[in-house]
Amino acid sequence: MRLYINVDHVATIREARGTDEPDPVRAAVLVELAGADGITVHLREDRRHIQDRDVKLLMRTARTVVNLEMATAPDIVDLACGLRPHQVTLVPERREEVTTEGGLDLSRAEVRQTIGATTRTLQSAGIRVSLFIDPDTAALEESKDLGVEAVELHTGEYANADFAERPYELDRLVRAGELGRELGLDIHAGHGLTYENVSPVAAIPTIEELNIGHSIVSRAVLVGMERAVREMKDLLRIARSQDTTEGNPT
Ligand code: PXP
Questions:
Q1: Where are the domains of the chain?
Q2: Distance from the CA of 88 to the center of ligand 1, in angstroms?
Q3: Ligand 1 near 158 CB (within 6 A)
Q4: Which of 9, 42, 49, 188 is catalytic?
Q5: Is 93 a catalytic residue?
Q6: Considering the entire predicted model, what is its pTM?
Q7: Sign of the CA dihedral 217, 219, 225, 227?
Q8: Is the dihedral of CA 105, 108, 110, 113 positive or negative?
Q9: Is 60 exposed, middle or buried (0-12, 13-18, 19+ CB in 10 A)?
Q10: Are 246 and 233 in contact (CB under 8 A)?
Q11: What are the pLDDT tens digits along the chain (250 aa)?
Q12: Does ligand 1 have an atom closer than 6 angstroms to the CB of 91?
């Protein structure tokens, strides 16, 4: 189980003042020293947190791997092809949203066409492509047809579910993971995962990579980045060594 940490919200604090601190690239160094397996950043079209400079610098300084989340804006696709991160995760993006609100809507032909063309461009630059999708059969099958290496299952509905709905949402993730593996896709997951809700997801054996941001950066503000990362890594390790689907080990 790989833990990739999304450092966007370090940049959110910087942008609140428009200065040069805190620097998400420095945060990435601490995150790596604490044991993260990769760094995730979302270069949004409106550049509300991560800036082009951050991605460029991160590509030169990261000791692990960079997972670049992005939509299909041509200038960002060009930037990605020039920088060649280990992985691009394609996400839907709406300017008015506070955060990514759901997976790609691959039921729409125009979305499939754009995602397919962007995927081919990125892959021909040697970049591995993952699609952020809802944990549904149709989205998995469309992803397979688009020829991507991986999918990231959107865990937002699981994270937002109340106590009664959570087993249903967890089961959706379990079944999506199984189908994805049968289709030959690597399975990632993320969005809305916290110290409180991560363990049952981390226990799903088909999931190889988690992308977690807001909860870890929030905890880091109080206890420091290295401790925040180590605590999350510990939870993942415990989840993988025992079945936690029936309870909350925290
Ligand atoms: N995965 C994707 C595709 C995302 O867009 C985000 C948020 O940028 C995350 C994971 C991380 O979500 P969170 O900050 O809620 O942990």
A1: 2-240
A2: 13
A3: no
A4: 42
A5: no
A6: 0.94
A7: negative
A8: positive
A9: exposed
A10: no
A11: 999 999 999 999 999 999 999 999 999 999 999 999 999 999 999 999 999 999 999 999 999 999 999 999 999 999 999 999 999 999 998 766 777 778 999 999 999 999 999 999 999 999 999 999 999 999 999 999 999 999 999 999 999 999 999 999 999 999 999 999 999 999 999 999 999 999 999 999 999 999 999 999 999 999 999 999 999 999 999 999 875 454 444 4
A12: yes
Answer yes or no: is the C-beta of 190 below 6 A from any ligand 1 atom: yes
CATH superfamily of 2-240: Aldolase class I (3.20.20.70)
Which residue's CA is the nearest one to ligand 1's atom 3? 132
| Catalytic residue flag (residue 141) | no
- 152 CB under 6 A from ligand 1? yes
Amino acid in the structure at residue 179: L
Tokens of 35: 């044991």
Q: Is 69 in the pocket of ligand 1 (CB under 6 A)?
A: yes
Say whether 42 is catalytic. Answer: yes
DSSP SS3 for 201: helix
